[in-house]
Amino acid sequence: MTPHKSSISLSVVIPFFNEEAAAFQIVDELCQEMTHLENGWEAILVNDGSKDGTAAELERARARWPQCRVLHLAQNRGQGGALLHGIQAATAPIIGMMDGDGQNVPGDLHDLLPLLLQADMVVGVRVDRHDSKLRHIMSRIANRVRGTLLRDGVSDAGCALKVFRREVVESFLPVHMLNPFMPAFAVSGGFRVIERAVRHRERQGGESKYGFRVMLWRPMFDMLALAWVLRRRIPVNAKFHESIEPRMDANGRE
């Protein structure tokens, strides 16, 4: 039986698009890791309009692990849209996320969670990356440009392995390329963001959805627009101290 909402401390959101080969395995691995958590948890699995057997694989995982919830989107909304749907459906005060292609290691979530005592968002930094040389180069360029324009203070914003407090969601803007801009949104919203090294592995089947257009060309226009918006934004997490004037009675006494 699914845990009551009030008993859930962590929601893990994973978007899937045509990941039939990896879907069940990555969910099963995640759920086995999550059984070590002392508090309740849930996994929000978002099927982003897949055309292959991803939907059936996610339903198979849900049947095995009652902590899983599956959201089936009728049309492909892109990673940003799928993530937003999953985050909106999450019920826990802490939200984690990862990719559905198997390149993130679910066990690394355990290393990120304790760091939320020091920050509002923790971003993974992929070490020993198992990507093609072209994708590695594109990612390096994208991270450098993004850091310069958006001043997010992180070195690998594109890493999908992240954990953050629910309050941080208030700073997010609904954009197609949501994942790599999350740190910038959080920083501009007045939240603290830190990094932690995480593992990275080869794809577990399927094909990469990130080519030149997705990783560099389209995000470049998004970054230029967001740089203008974020520098004019009022932080939603602004710290303040209220000074209280002594109250006087009718005779002028405190």
Q: Describe it for me?
A:
With 254 residues, this protein is of the alpha/beta class. 34% of the residues lie in helices and 17% in strands. It is built from seven helices and seven strands; from the N terminus they run E-H-E-H-E-H-E-H-E-H-E-H-E-H. It has helices at 23-34, 54-64, 78-89, 109-112, 133-150, 178-188, 212-230; strands at 8-16, 40-48, 68-73, 94-97, 121-126, 162-165, 193-198. Strand 2, helix 2 (54-64) and strand 3 form a beta-alpha-beta unit. It starts with 7 loop residues before the first strand and ends in a 24-residue tail after the last helix. The mean pLDDT is 84.
Mean pLDDT: 84
User: Pairing-aware structural class of the strands and helices?
Assistant: alpha/beta
Cα Rg: 20 Å
| Mass-distribution shape | globular
How helix-rich are the residues, as a percent range?
Answer: 25-40%
Order of helices and strands: EHEHEHEHEHEHEH
Describe the largest sheet. 7 strands, mixed
Strand order of the largest sheet: 3-2-1-4-6-5-7
Number of helices: 7
End-to-end separation? 58 Å
Strand content: 15-25%
Question: What is the topology?
Answer:
Layout: E1 8-16, H1 23-34, E2 40-48, H2 54-64, E3 68-73, H3 78-89, E4 94-97, H4 109-112, E5 121-126, H5 133-150, E6 162-165, H6 178-188, E7 193-198, H7 212-230
Parallel strand pairs: 1-2, 1-4, 2-3, 5-7
Antiparallel strand pairs: 4-6, 5-6
Keywords:
254 residues, alpha/beta, seven-stranded mixed beta sheet, 7 helices, 7 strands, 17% strand, globular
